């Protein structure tokens, strides 16, 4: 009986192989031997799932280089968690993570590094500037001796 089962299996395998050789059996999902390699892609970094999906998609599309532009530069010692996750996978899988100065920035790097905290503070102050025209009411619920904020309402003065 075991011999009969083996013969049936071989017959089925042979039949399927021959059917695959018949003309007119094209499959639209047939994969090519070598994946398509695209040259380069640009993506903007943002702290959202959209960025992860865009970067993952570009990597799956086999781009040889993916340039991620950063609209708000961050310190090399304070890399955002989202970017750090990608770098961690690269380093953890034997890839190389390295640093390089931007071309033409060697002379300006020290000046930019010194002025950037001032710029950040100025931008922070400017973003809070409209709050001078509002009052704020924090609505809380006091349960079990601890006030828990449930809503904040800003009202024009």
Q: What does this entry look like structurally?
A:
- This protein has four helices and four strands.
- Helix content is 41%, strand content 22%.
- By secondary structure, it is of the alpha+beta class.
- It is extended and about 85 Å long.
- The protein has a domain of 65 residues.
Compose a concise summary of this entry.
The protein is an alpha+beta fold. It has helices spanning 2-21, 49-60, 81-92, 109-128; strands spanning 38-44, 63-69, 134-143, 146-156.
- How many whole angstroms does the radius of gyration measure? 29 Å
Q: Order of strands side by side in the largest beta sheet?
A: 1-2
User: Biggest β-sheet: count, sense, barrel?
Assistant: 2 strands, parallel
Spans with pLDDT under 50 lasting ≥5 residues? 25-29
Helix count equals 4
Would you count the extended β strands for me?
4
Look at the helices and sheets and give the structural class. Answer: alpha+beta
Proportion of β residues? 15-25%
What is the first-to-last residue Cα distance? 91 Å
- SSE pattern: HEHEHHEE
Helix amount, in percent? 40-55%
Integer average pLDDT? 73
Shape: extended
Name some characteristics of this structure.
about 160 residues; two-stranded parallel sheet; two-stranded antiparallel ribbon; about 20% strand; alpha+beta
Question: How would you summarize the topology of this molecule?
Answer:
Blueprint: H1 2-21, E1 38-44, H2 49-60, E2 63-69, H3 81-92, H4 109-128, E3 134-143, E4 146-156
Parallel strand pairs: 1-2
Antiparallel strand pairs: 3-4
